[in-house]
Amino acid sequence: MTQFTDLKLDPKVLKAIAEAGYTTPTPIQAQAIPHALEGRDVLGIAQTGTGKTASFVLPLITRLGRGRARARMPRSLVLAPTRELAAQVAENFDIYAKHTRLTKALLIGGVAFGEQDKLIDRGVDVLIATPGRLLDHFERGKLLLTGVEVMVVDEADRMLDMGFIPDIERIFGLTPFTRQTFFYSATMAPEIERVTNTFLSNPARIEIARQATASENITQELIELPATRRDGAAKLKREALRAIIETEGDTLENAIVFCNRKVDVDILSKSLSKHKLDAAPIHGDLDQSVRTRTLEKFRAGELRLLIASDVAARGLDVPSVSHVFNYDLPSHPEDYVHRIGRTGRAGRSGKAISLMVPADQKHLEQIEQLLQRPLPRGVAPGLDLPSTPAAPKSSEGDADSTQERPKRSARSHKVKKDTPAPEVAATPQGQEGKSDQAKPATAPRSKPTKERDTTRRDGRDKRDAVVGMGDHVPDFLMREFRVA
Which of 20, 104, 232, 425 could bridge 228 with an S-S bond, Cβ 3.0-4.6 Å? Predict the structure, then answer.
């Protein structure tokens, strides 16, 4: 079996690896690092949680061991789709480069430009950034990319989902043609393959597992909830989630709960907290300091439930996550694999439970088609759910309204029944406009009382007036028009 000592890494890097407690590389590390040290481009395709970050950080540190950074000209560039993933790459660099003199800078949104400018001005060996913030610095004239020796694109399929591919192509154009490129993705969409064919030169293609497969260490389960009114589906899902959390008991050390919408993240987090469950939200609309603090608490074991949008679905390395819940089934089947990949990492076992309502049937079919097998079904504990979907019961107010509608309908049918069919007489040619020869059928009217005056000022019956006009019918409407 291959050991890290067999990979010709810098002795200082090997020392840091040993202090971190690792001796055996993962399959993608064992295959990618030798090609990277030879100077070849690397195209890595592997499911999440396989150690992709270390597979490019370790050879990057080894290659940059010789040389010196210049002001505003970083020697290497690592691009990540989200702030959290970029921060995680920076943490890995700190762990493995602690015995070297290499410097780094982290360029992400939500942080003031001033501190980042100071780091760039001093010169950095490794620049870790999100695409948007990197281009902001470049357009301000604070950064030059002509000195980049190694460029890394991490989670490229997530970049595609977030619309970063045009930015990635622009950044590639700002770097030297002679650079070495590491390109990592869990899936290979046609757009991503086009980018790799354009910007990578004869890359070593490393594919560890079938594209978009789930780890065998993860126990998957799907709980189907009955049909209900739209406003009741969310309440039913919250009740089911609380019941599952209670049933899992002490086996649930911590968990990430994924929602599709940011507003649902906030609502669910408040609901769980109200029921005395330790939960906190994380999504893109929160301030960066709040997101960082929440994630640190979750990693430290001070937070049990992390309620997240897909900002936490990819790349975040929290090895001890015992459970993942899909409060909503994702609309993209690949996201399902990335979500449940937050558990069962580094050889550990994990459990992924998904909630589904009938409206999610299309998403379920896409997920099962991607996995090439059906998800095992389960039952929500502690809930008295009907075996077949039942029609929603109307409230008391709804019942009253449903009684009124038949009454109106019956009244209208009665009117039609009691109203005699009008006698239509043949109208002489040219006399179609005369109102006294053929009058349209009118709705029946109640018998006028003696006190009721039914005669208009012009001699006509008020009951024959144009509806909505009253006594103020314009004179031209009462005229007859004939063709000369």
Answer: 232
Strand order of the β-sheet with 218-224 is: 279-282, 305-308, 255-258, 323-326, 350-356, 218-224, 377-378
What's the predicted TM-score (pTM) here? 0.63
Percent of the chain scored above 70 by pLDDT?
A: 75
Name the fold adopted by 4-207: Rossmann fold (3.40.50)
Paired sense of beta strands 126-129 and 180-185, if any: unpaired
The 10s digit of each residue's pLDDT in 95-133 is 999 999 999 999 998 888 998 999 999 999 999 999 999
Both tokens assigned to 105: 């800078």
What's the length of the chain?
Answer: 484
Calpha distance 238→243 (Å, rounded): 9
Domain extents in the chain: 4-207, 218-378
CA 212/CA 113 separation, integer angstroms: 37
Residue 42 β-bridge partners? 182, 204
Q: Do domains 4-207 and 218-378 have the same CATH topology?
A: yes
In the block, tokens 């430290």 appear at 300
| pLDDT tens readout for residues 49-96 | 678 899 999 999 999 988 888 888 999 999 999 888 898 899 999 999
Q: Compute the distance between CA of residue 444 and CA of residue 73 in angstroms, rounded to an integer.
A: 90
Q: Two tokens at 171?
A: 């950044």
Find where tokens 């968990």 sit.
255
Contacts of 254 (CB under 8 A, 6+ apart): 298, 301, 303, 304, 305, 306, 320, 321, 322, 323
* 110: region left, alpha or beta (phi > 0 left; psi from -120 to 50 alpha): left
Alpha carbons within 13 A on the beta-carbon side of 243: 15
Indicate the helix (H) or strand (E) that contains 246: helix 230-248
Q: Which amino acid is at 278?
A: D
Burial class (CB in 10 A: 0-12, 13-18, 19+), 93: buried
